[in-house]
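User: Okay, second chain of the day. Same drill as before: sequence in, structure tokens out.
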Amino acid sequence: MVKNFAIVFVFISMVPAVCSADDGAFGLAWGMTKVQVEKLGVKLEPSSAKLGIETLTTEKLPKNVSIAEAYSLTFDRKHNLQKVMMVSKDIDNDPYGSEGKKKYAELKESLITKYGQPSDVLEKVGGKLWDEKDEFYQCLAYAGCGMWVALFEDKTSGQNIGLQLEGMTRGKGYIHLIYEGPKWSEVVDAMKAAEAQSDKDAL
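Assistant: Same drill. Structure tokens below.
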């Protein structure tokens, strides 16, 4: 399984006055343009672009998590920066998930300290096929077998945060940390509407 930035969770010339640098993740602010982010010394690499949404990747942001391998930043044509995702370095030689669970728990505790208790948590494995203790990551990688995820809602800024431990192969996994900005739901709705219109135009 190849590690990637694909995951599902329901993130201007001038940044609005209600937005501070702490409103976003990793030293960024929601509503920043690509130019504003680059002026912070961030080197952005193109990743994908579709229907007014552009995603770029980088190895470093103004504030970094020590386990991070890379970040993706998603910009909307109207609302600019509205999603940021961190993918961790691989967690290797960990068949029972001990190291992965430890790193996940440390990040989860930091998020609880800042945002309060999660709005939803699912930390369970062994529901299907991969049910042995040393098959932790195989289970996480298999649909319906298990999930290790915590979701947070920050009512102050309107952002949503998702923390997830992912499986790759036996003894190998990684962590996703996703921040969705206060306008992200509008971005998703606009994208769905654009896709529907594109489908109609194609018929």
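The longest helix spans residues 184-202.

User: Thanks, on to the next one.
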